[in-house]
Amino acid sequence: MFGTMRESFTAATAVVVMGLLTVCSHSSLAVAQESSSSNAVVVDGTSFALNGDNVSYRFHVDNSTGDLVSDHFGGSVTGAIPSPQEPDVNGWVGMPGRVRREFPDQGRGDFRIPAIRIRQSEGYTVSDLQYQSHQVIKGKPALLGLPATWGDEQDVTTLVVHLYDNYSSVAADLSYSVFPRYDAIIRSVNVTNQGEGNITIEALASMSVDLPYEELDMVNLRGDWAREANRQRRRVEYGIQGFGSNTGYSSHFHNPFLALVHPSTTESQGEAWGFSLVYTGSFSVDVEKGSQGFTRALLGLNPDRLSWKLGPGEILTSPECVSVYSKDGIGGMSRSFHRLYRNHLIKSRFATQNRPVLLNSWEGVYFDFNQSSIYTMAEDSAALGIQLFVMDDGWFGEKYPRLADNAGLGDWMPNPARFPNGLEPLVEDATNLTVKDSSAKLRFGIWVEPEMVNPNSTLYHEHPDWVLHAGSYPRTERRNQLVLNLALPEVQNFIIDFMTTLLRSADISYVKWDNNRGQHETPSPSNDHAYMLGLYQVFSTLTERFPDVLWEGCASGGGRFDPGMLQYFPQIWTSDNTDGVDRVTIQFGTSLAYPPSAMGAHLSAVPNHQTGRTIPVTFRGHVAMMGGSFGLELNPADLQDDERESMPELLALAEKVNPIVLNGDAYRLRLPEETNWPAMQFISEDGSQAVLFYFQLGPNVNHAAPWVRLQGLDLEANYSVDGNATYSGATLMNMGLQYTFETEYGSKVVFLEKN
Length: 755
Ligand SMILES: *[C@@H]1O[C@H](CO)[C@@H](O)[C@H](O)[C@H]1NC(C)=O
Ligand SMILES: *[C@@H]1O[C@H](CO)[C@@H](O)[C@H](O)[C@H]1NC(C)=O
Ligand SMILES: *[C@@H]1O[C@H](CO)[C@@H](O)[C@H](O)[C@H]1NC(C)=O
Ligand SMILES: *[C@@H]1O[C@H](CO)[C@@H](O)[C@H](O)[C@H]1NC(C)=O
Ligand SMILES: *[C@@H]1O[C@H](CO)[C@@H](O)[C@H](O)[C@H]1NC(C)=O
Ligand SMILES: *[C@@H]1O[C@H](CO)[C@@H](O)[C@H](O)[C@H]1NC(C)=O
Ligand SMILES: *[C@@H]1O[C@H](CO)[C@@H](O)[C@H](O)[C@H]1NC(C)=O
Ligand SMILES: *[C@@H]1O[C@H](CO)[C@@H](O)[C@H](O)[C@H]1NC(C)=O
Ligand SMILES: *[C@@H]1O[C@H](CO)[C@@H](O)[C@H](O)[C@H]1NC(C)=O
Ligand SMILES: CC(=O)N[C@H]1CO[C@H](CO)[C@@H](O)[C@@H]1O
What we know:
Elements: H1 9-17, E1 23-24, E2 41-44, E3 47-51, E4 56-61, E5 68-74, E6 116-119, E7 130-138, E8 157-165, E9 170-179, E10 184-193, E11 199-211, E12 217-224, E13 227-235, E14 239-245, E15 257-261, E16 272-277, E17 283-289, E18 295-301, E19 308-310, E20 315-317, E21 321-326, H2 329-344, E22 358-360, H3 362-365, H4 371-384, E23 388-391, H5 424-430, E24 443-448, E25 452-453, H6 458-462, E26 482-483, H7 489-505, E27 510-513, H8 527-545, E28 550-553, H9 563-568, E29 571-573, H10 580-590, E30 599-604, H11 617-625, E31 629-633, H12 641-663, E32 665-670, E33 679-683, E34 689-696, E35 707-708, E36 718-721, E37 726-728, H13 729-734, E38 737-738, E39 746-754
Parallel strand pairs: 22-23, 22-31, 23-24, 24-27, 27-28, 28-29, 29-30, 30-31
Antiparallel strand pairs: 1-7, 2-3, 3-4, 4-5, 6-11, 7-8, 8-9, 9-10, 10-20, 10-21, 11-18, 11-19, 12-13, 12-15, 14-17, 15-16, 16-21, 17-18, 25-26, 32-33, 33-34, 34-39, 35-38, 36-37, 36-39
Helix pairs in contact: 7-8, 10-11, 11-12
Bound molecules: 2-acetamido-2-deoxy-beta-D-glucopyranose (10 copies).
């Protein structure tokens, strides 16, 4: 049915592209796109099909109620599909509670968790959003004020479905964009108050999906400071289970990511549905197995932190949620996210470029430096072969110098005792240093934490009203600091102005943007989202104004490792925990949803400052190289002999693997939670090179050396392994390689070259 109507689509498509066509209900007109994604969106009457290379997403309008009913989200289905059986309506659950709903509203017999809850001006929370019309748009319109995936007409096609509640005059526009080559479907929602009264949006999910399966597992990432991104898998049970953040930020506690998988799904096999919310603020994820057996998943703004007033004519736009589907297990799901995010989310020109090897001063000297000692550190860094030197916290504060974490945040002028003539002399000298074994000059980067203020600062004394506060409740501090309210335009402008002045004051080519506490005592729950809109406005202004700066995100480590940040920051500091073994777990976990290219990972001193553990330098280096931004987190002057000796080889290796890590496909061959020998493999985009990272965590007493089987290679091709033996792809994948490690903390990086 869908395949046969293509001839007549062309004219309609042309009109739609101009944004003029609204196809009305009950029309038999259908629209499809030409070219490689020729059937990305196919409409037949009021049935809709979104097609990726290996995914189909289908729903239709129930003509008797105007509700949108889901038909399918999963592997490809083609042509006509069976109509759902009309359920018998007995008992308490009404018809809406017995069908799979695209955008479940509340109050009409569906007792499951709703995607939208509107408190109407009269006080009730019933709504009835019915299909009105739809349009198909080539490409993907920007999401006003929010980060979003982007692409041109060849990459993506968008279907907008307009819903309308005739009783309350509230409209909801569902926007679905398909990136066919990535098997990704992206949804966001606009709610518009077209009535005369004031309404309140109390819940708004970006994505809601009803899967017709009772047996599913859910996978998500949990943690806390210094132990982010622990993978958690559990059976979806009857009732609601979920997680989220009410900290104002995405947080370390839970990442805005969910996978639903079949219970038999593994890393490399089986069905996996991945959902990733492009948002940095308070969010919630709920999964509900209802009494009728369907499983509903919702991702969106956290209803506990939302009570959004919409006056007449006003619009609330939800963040977008990216959904991918894979038959190749959790690994296949991850690779779809990685490719999409590298190519269609991260806006920075550095997204797919090799990153400079950097040295960050934090763990090396903390707050303890001055102009001459920090210059010496830069000098030592250049002499090691470091390409980018980053001066971390401690450089600012005039009247309240930042000598410890109890003063100075907010006063972003160089500390005159440390830098009598400002930063320029230091930066000029540092950027005139030649990097060892190259003709390149050292580059200079700096740390900031713009959203925060110490009460012990000039800024706070001048603008006590700029911080988050709720009436006269005490403004409770964390790490001696308070949070500026980014919802206020004057705060946004303050940050944009001081950052502009700072970046123009010297040749600064990198910024680490930190954020070290959650939000308390907010003026209202909805301030969380208003803050985010303000923050995104600041990010987009600054990153557009300074496109040549390499921006790195950070929030006490990975407290904001989320897709919203990635729009502006091509790399994010993955964790404040730099312990090599802990980092294997954290980085493998983070890679569930995020490309390794986006991970900042540093080799630090031993005993490790967070765990006290001493791990050999090679192991620490190999783990850090699995991140797109490799660097050191130590004082070069304090290097131990073995570290100094290993450094040239490790830095050379890091440069060699970087292009493959940045743009390659990642395979988690074995997980640190499950084995003493975790392994990760990357295959370059063109398939000609691969690199295997292989670790032994604990000792291996009186036990055979295990085999590691590779993945994703070309079965027929031959690969040379570290320039030595040559084996076929079939042999490497079906039999594997075997390595022996002498002790705990063994590690190996193996290069494969396709012949
Ligand atoms: C609903 O109505 C439209 C227009 O009349 C028609 O194309 C479509 O097939 C109908 N759908 C169902 C499920 O009856
Ligand atoms: C939603 O509203 C915003 C703000 O007016 C607009 O930019 C966007 O195009 C709208 N999206 C849809 C799908 O209507
Ligand atoms: C919408 O409501 C108005 C009155 O409030 C009514 O006249 C009209 O028929 C309704 N339209 C639909 C499609 O239900
Ligand atoms: C809606 O809210 C605004 C601002 O709070 C108020 O001025 C207006 O009177 C309200 N309108 C109605 C119909 O209640
Ligand atoms: C800078 O710090 C170093 C090391 O702590 C110290 O030796 C030196 O005297 C300091 N220089 C200035 C100008 O304070
Ligand atoms: C304020 O900062 C100064 C250093 O600038 C420090 O000596 C003092 O203890 C701080 N006061 C508080 C209350 O933290
Ligand atoms: C840069 O360093 C070179 C020596 O490497 C020196 O000759 C030159 O004067 C320096 N330039 C500046 C601006 O300091
Ligand atoms: C791989 O190597 C084998 C044995 O040397 C050889 O027979 C075969 O032709 C090679 N295959 C390719 C694709 O080069
Ligand atoms: C190549 O194999 C030899 C002999 O097994 C070994 O000594 C050498 O380390 C290997 N080279 C590499 C680069 O692995
Ligand atoms: C695993 C799978 O089904 N892959 C298919 C995805 O779609 C492309 C293009 O249609 C096929 O070539 C693959 O075989």
